[in-house]
């Protein structure tokens, strides 16, 4: 707020000042709600290699690794 605006506030009535404060409080509440909404949106959208510059090796997925066999282990010996 500039000095010019401060001088204008000094000349306002008490009721006018109360209205200004209430308007500022309403704006502040709306901005806080919006900030909380955006913070939740950021937290809920996890980054992975498909939507960021992260390498695929940093993805936290439950896929088996390429060198991991998909077959179940048995008690039989290997070979023919």
Q: What can you see in these coordinates?
A:
- With 80 residues, the chain is mostly helical.
- Helices cover 49% and strands 0% of the residues.
- The chain is built from two helices and no strands.
- The longest helix is centred in the middle third of the chain and has 31 residues, at 14-44.
- The chain is rod-shaped, with a radius of gyration of 30 Å.
- The mean pLDDT is 81.
Radius of gyration: 30 Å
Distance between the termini: 86 Å
The tally of beta strands, per DSSP, is 0
Order of helices and strands: HH
Quaternary structure: single chain
Strand percentage lies at: under 5%
Average pLDDT score: 81
Largest sheet: none
Question: Would you kindly provide a brief summary of this structure?
Answer:
This protein is mainly α.
Short key terms for the protein model shown above:
single chain, 80 residues, mainly alpha
Strand-helix topology:
Elements (H helix, E strand, L loop, with lengths): L2 H8 L3 H31 L36
């Amino acid at each position: 707020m500039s000095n010019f605006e401060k001088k204008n506030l000094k000349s306002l009535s008490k009721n006018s000042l109360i209205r200004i404060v209430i308007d500022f409080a309403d704006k502040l509440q709306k901005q806080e709600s919006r900030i909380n909404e955006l913070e939740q949106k950021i937290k809920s959208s996890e980054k992975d290699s498909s939507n960021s510059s992260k390498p695929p090796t940093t993805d936290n997925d439950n896929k088996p690794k390429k060198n991991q066999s998909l077959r179940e282990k048995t008690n039989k010996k290997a070979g023919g």
